[in-house]
Design a protein that fits this description.
The structure holds two protein chains of two kinds. By secondary structure, chain A is mostly beta strands. Helix content of chain A is 10%, strand content 59%. Chain A is built from two helices and ten strands. In chain A, strands 1, 2, 3, 4, 5, 6, 7, 8, 9 and 10 form a ten-stranded antiparallel sheet that branches. In chain A, a hairpin with a 4-residue loop joins strand 4 and strand 5. Chain A is globular and about 50 Å long. Chain B is mostly beta strands. Chain B has one domain: lipopolysaccharide transport protein A fold (Sandwich). In chain B, strands 1, 2, 3, 4, 5, 6, 7, 8, 9 and 10 form a ten-stranded antiparallel sheet that branches. The termini of chain B are far apart. Classes of the chains: A mainly beta, B mainly beta. Chains A and B meet through strand 1, strand 7, strand 9, strand 10 and helix 2 of A and strand 1 and strand 2 of B. Strand 10 of chain A pairs antiparallel with strand 1 of chain B.
Chain lengths: 144, 201
């Protein structure tokens, strides 16, 4: 029913339409029940400013992807100044910068030359030169 | 009485000084591991896997490593999860296994290791290096093998399969049987000749 309501809405959006403060949630799926969606949030795609380009592709300024574990705690935040977002496939990509903070600050990843994020299966690909910093304690015990 | 009061005051002052002394906090390890790479990073959260590609360089205070492919696998059996959380994607767990592959070079605590593949298990801090030729260089000893197990915790290791060792002895062999200076009885130097009178031969 929701799909029937949403699909015509996408069709009615004119190219160049601008909006702000939109969010796209992603929910956990239960495999034993054949992929039934739960009400537990898995991720959230947040954009400060949205501009409709074509079909269901938007240009997003001030992108932020939050990822939550099963208990609802945020375990990863990805921030990019701008990106493109396909609302139907729920994928985001850019040739620009992406900053990631994960594991409560234990891991920071900085990519400057592009990324691809797939919200459905929580996959994030950072392209080209990347600098990653990992707290030593996350890898294993400190040797004396 | 006055002396007793002064003594008590002194004792109290000393006690207060000791009480005010804060116990030194246990230093928190803040060592960071930096990874630089040219080919990008893949974060696969459901699989608990992070992959670094192409010209990967890992820096740490006591470790430097280079390879072409670095994979971090996170623990999936650390906590028994209910069936419903089978797809739970939790990044806040420690990597269980780290695998470095292709053109591997690792330098740590005066030891250099060259090989094709290294598997580091965090639980026991053990690195297993394999390859067509694994070279381990430490001070003036070069060790060749195909499979070497190194424990970072104890800084010890052993090889599986054939091995060859090359020891560079510096200064021991000079290519001659002559005694080195300082060996043997001291030589007496001839006394300087007395000046001869003019015209004498």
């Amino acid at each position: 029913m929701t799909t029937l309501l949403v699909l015509p809405l996408f069709a009615q959006i004119r190219s160049g339409f601008r909006g702000s403060g939109s969010k796209y949630p992603e929910f956990y799926v239960l495999p034993p029940t054949g992929g039934a969606q739960t009400n537990r949030l898995k991720g959230m795609f947040i954009g400060n400013e949205w501009q409709h380009l074509s079909n269901k592709v938007f240009r997003v300024n001030g992108m932020k992807i939050e990822h939550y574990d099963w208990s609802g705690e945020t375990n990863l935040v990805a921030i990019a100044p701008e990106c493109l977002f396909d609302a139907e496939a729920r994928v985001a990509w850019s040739t620009g910068r992406l900053d990631i903070v994960g594991m409560s600050g234990g891991v920071t990843i900085r990519g400057a030359r592009g990324f691809f994020a797939r919200m459905g299966d929580s996959t994030l690909i950072i392209s080209n030169k990347v600098r990653t910093t990992i707290q030593r304690e996350l890898i294993g015990p400190i040797t004396p | 009485m006055r002396t007793l009061l002064i003594a008590l005051a002194g004792v109290s002052l000393v006690a207060a000084l000791f009480a005010a002394e804060p116990r030194a906090a246990k230093p928190v390890a803040t060592s960071k591991l930096t990874v630089l790479n040219e080919g990008g990073v893949n974060l696969d959260l459901p699989a608990g896997r992070i992959v670094f590609r192409d010209a990967v360089k890992v820096f740490e205070s006591d470790l430097y490593m280079e390879c072409e492919l670095l994979t971090l696998f996170q623990q999936t059996n650390a906590v028994a999860k209910p069936a419903a959380t089978a797809t739970s994607t939790n990044l806040s767990i420690r990597p269980d296994v780290i695998i470095a592959e292709t053109n591997l070079m690792m330098m740590a605590r005066g030891t250099t290791i060259i090989g094709d593949r290294a598997v580091y298990t965090t639980s026991n801090e053990t690195v297993v290096v394999t390859g067509d030729l694994v070279v381990i260089e430490r001070s003036n000893v070069v060790f060749f093998s195909t499979n070497f197990v190194f424990n970072r915790l104890t800084s010890s290791g052993y090889a599986v399969g054939w091995t060859a060792t090359e020891i560079e002895v510096s200064g021991g062999f000079s290519g001659t049987n002559a005694l080195r200076p300082g060996f043997g009885p001291p030589r007496r130097q001839a006394p300087p000749a007395a000046p001869k009178p003019d015209g004498a031969k």
